[in-house]
Amino acid sequence: MHKITLIPGDGTGPDITSAARRVLDASGxxxxxxxxxxxxxxxxxxxxxxxxxxxxxISRNGLAxxxxxxxxxxxxxxxxxxxxxxxxDLYACVRPAKSLPGIKTRYEDVDLIVVRENTEDLYAxxxxxxxxxxxxxxxxxxxxxxxxxxxxxxELARREGRKKVTIVHKANIMKFTDGLFLESxxxxxxxxxxxxxxxxxxxxxxxxxxxxxxxxxxxxxxxLYGDIVSDLAAGLVGGLxxxxxxxxxxxxxxxxxxxxxxxxxxGMDKVNPLATILSGVMMxxxxxxFEAAARVMRGVTAVLHEGKTVTYDLGGxxxxxxxxxxxxxxMR
Length: 332
Ligand code: NAD
Description:
The protein is α/β, with parallel strands linked by helices. It is built from 11 helices and 12 strands. It has 2 domains: 1-98 and 238-332, Isopropylmalate Dehydrogenase (3-Layer(aba) Sandwich), CATH 3.40.718.10; 106-236, 3-Layer(aba) Sandwich (Isopropylmalate Dehydrogenase). The model has no long low-confidence stretch (mean pLDDT 95).
């Protein structure tokens, strides 16, 4: 029995996490859920969107499936998602982007994994106003965090039989910060002679990804570039509705869709549950539940192939819950 923390989340979070929960419960994996609430809805009760007992639950179980949490833009509390990753030292953000059958996109053979550093860079949150008309943000890059994420990316490539890791940076301009990231990743690459290491400046990377995404395999990036490039990669394979992700540390892993809480669709049972279901598939594989993961994938593939019971973003009219039910029906 796997005990897993479930955070329903804000906005559309409860719709998509309950859909994913039903699918995972039907997958054959034995899961006991510990549901804890975080985000906007708990601020009045606990005075914080991220109460200590939520972190304690994730820490104790070592695993969580998480719905998106809303962060107000330019005001209020710091991003709960960023705080959670930093508090639990979930240093590696893993976001695969793989072409799925039945989803019409401009590309056919995309199979990328974006590995994003999750704890520092401009996300360190050291930012302030300088007088009335200026503001300043400090970019933190350390050798320790850069080597750690590079090692994670090369280990992942080796474990999954991938051929190439592209180290993405802007060291031509940010010679100290990105320079250190690049230097650290190069050093790590030397220990993996069986995996090709390639270097790419982030702007060129974006252009190449939209021209020839099939040429790329695993990419490793500092935090901010990783955030942007992973949304770009999601766009190559059908958009945010189908983009799963994981935040992984040495002892704890939190699985969540790449997308946010899509607040305008709150309570409408409308958005695509696949990003969360596929995050659940990543979680099953992380647990070694490969049979259950394959069963869910067979359900997902069949539903996409048929193309009838899909949500609005995939050209259908089905509800979140109906699409999840169709996945379950097609699992065998
Ligand atoms: P968003 O990802 O929530 O939504 C942007 C648009 O993408 C939506 O309006 C919708 O059209 C589409 N979309 C998103 N998810 C979809 C799905 N599952 N199916 C179909 N369409 C989908 O981005 P946003 O509006 O910029 O952010 C809303 C809130 O979410 C913000 O407060 C932001 O901080 C937060 N956020 C949280 C996380 C997280 O919890 N990890 C990640 C990103 C954003």
